[in-house]
Amino acid sequence: MLYVKDIARLLDAKILYGTNMDTTEVHSVCGSDMMSDVLAYVKNQSVLLTGLCNPQTIRTAEMMDIVCLVFVRNKQPDETMIELAKQRGISVFTTYHTMFTSCGILYTAGLKGGA
């Protein structure tokens, strides 16, 4: 088990919005650009790694109790998306790592998939 702050550190992520990063536990990770897969496989207290940068990503994260969104490949959500995440209490990061590398880093750190 990791905390949200650990995700930022491990992925060398830029924190665009962070909430309760020292106390929010993370139990699993999902890497996907297909929100239908996220809806089918993600469990609660998860981190979502994605390159899909649109408001639907935030809405899906809210429905699935995702506590942290990490946009891979330096994808940058706009201010509207960040504000939507703030309203829902979801931390938002961006990292230069690819999806594959990000998943590997978090797996090595002890996180398992959400399925």
List the SSEs and their pairings:
Elements: E1 2-3, H1 4-10, E2 14-17, E3 25-26, E4 28-31, H2 35-41, E5 46-50, H3 55-63, E6 66-71, H4 79-88, E7 91-94, H5 99-108, E8 112-113
Parallel strand pairs: 4-5, 4-8, 5-6, 6-7
Antiparallel strand pairs: 1-3, 2-7
Portion in beta strands: 25-35%
The domain tally reads 1
- Sheet with the most strands, sense and barrel status: 6 strands, mixed
Mean pLDDT: 91
Distance between the termini: 16 Å
User: Would you state the CATH class?
Assistant: Alpha Beta
Query: Structural class of the helices, strands and pairings?
Result: alpha/beta
Outline:
globular
Enumerate the spans where pLDDT stays under 50 for 5 or more consecutive residues.
none
Count of discrete alpha- or pi-helical segments spanning 4 or more residues: 5
What is the CATH topology classification name? Udp-n-acetylmuramoylalanyl-d-glutamate--2,6- Diaminopimelate Ligase, Chain: A, domain 1
Radius of gyration: 12 Å
Order of helices and strands: EHEEEHEHEHEHE
Q: Architecture in CATH?
A: 3-Layer(aba) Sandwich
Summarize the structure in short.
By secondary structure, the chain is of the alpha/beta class. Helices cover 37% and strands 25% of the residues.
Write a structural description.
By secondary structure, the protein is α/β, with parallel strands linked by helices. It has one domain: 3-Layer(aba) Sandwich (Udp-n-acetylmuramoylalanyl-d-glutamate--2,6- Diaminopimelate Ligase, Chain: A, domain 1), CATH 3.40.1390. The chain has 5 helices and 8 strands; from the N terminus they run E-H-E-E-E-H-E-H-E-H-E-H-E. The strands form 2 sheets. The protein has a 6-stranded mixed beta sheet, sandwiched between helices. A two-stranded antiparallel sheet has the order 1-3. Strand 4, helix 2 and strand 5 form a beta-alpha-beta unit. 37% of the residues are buried. The mean pLDDT is 91.
